[in-house]
Amino acid sequence: MGEFQFGGVNHLALVCSDMQRTVDFYTNVLGMPLVKTIELPRGLGQHFFFDCGGGDTLAFFWFPDAPDGIPGVSAPAARPDQGEIVSAVGSMNHVAFSVPPETFEDCHRRLAAKGVEVSPILDHDDSPSGRASELHPGVFVRSFYFIDPDGILLELACWLRSFTVDDVRHAPRTAADRTAPASI
């Protein structure tokens, strides 16, 4: 397994503007049980954890003095099907939750029925655009996107095949390849 024995993501910690609204969305809309709440010392805020399956949790901080996020900087300005998906270096672009392929289309329908604005289903393949116009054997993941009450981009995705060594074929880019000036 390597030097470290990773067992998944313990938690991903995000920041919300309204913990009650966040609890409502993640428990009542997405069905994630709230499993732990923490009142931070010295009035710093709150830290709540939701069970997102597989032994992993999604956590939120609420800070009374947190600044608002800036679309296009702290998060993408739009869903991938609507426009610009770039966000700043060091930002969190989106969170993708894994769902079984056999329930994937039903998840899309159920979220839409709950009033969540969902993207069309996107079938991702290795074509130049990265998207297939129809489901075919080269599609490796299906997904759709939606946004939480604080503008956090979320995705439900299902893998359709296992990866092989042939799936790792691109050289990683470096800071020298950037077109935006580095500010650090």
Structural account:
It is a single chain. With 184 residues, the protein is of the alpha+beta class. The protein folds into two domains: 1-66, Roll (2,3-Dihydroxybiphenyl 1,2-Dioxygenase, domain 1), CATH 3.10.180; 70-162, Roll (2,3-Dihydroxybiphenyl 1,2-Dioxygenase, domain 1), CATH 3.10.180. It is built from two helices and nine strands. It has a five-stranded mixed β-sheet, covered by helices on one side. It has a four-stranded mixed β-sheet with strand order 1-4-3-2, covered by helices on one side. A hairpin with a 6-residue loop joins strand 2 and strand 3. The longest helix is centred in the first third of the chain and has 11 residues, at 19-29. The radius of gyration is 18 Å and the shape is globular. It starts with 10 loop residues before the first strand and ends in a 25-residue tail after the last strand. The mean pLDDT is 92.
Number of strands: 9
Q: Helicity level, as a percent range?
A: 10-25%
Domain count: the total is: 2
Q: Give the SSE order as H and E letters.
A: EHEEEEHEEEE
- Largest sheet at a glance? 5 strands, mixed
Content-based structural category: alpha+beta
Q: Which strand order do you get reading across the main beta sheet?
A: 5-9-8-6-7
- Strand fraction: 25-35%
Organism: Pseudonocardia asaccharolytica DSM 44247 = NBRC 16224
Protein name: Putative glyoxalase/bleomycin resistance protein
Pfam families: Glyoxalase
Domain VOC: 8-159
Key descriptive features of the protein:
26% strand; four-stranded mixed sheet; alpha+beta; 2 domains; 2,3-Dihydroxybiphenyl 1,2-Dioxygenase, domain 1; 184 residues; five-stranded mixed sheet
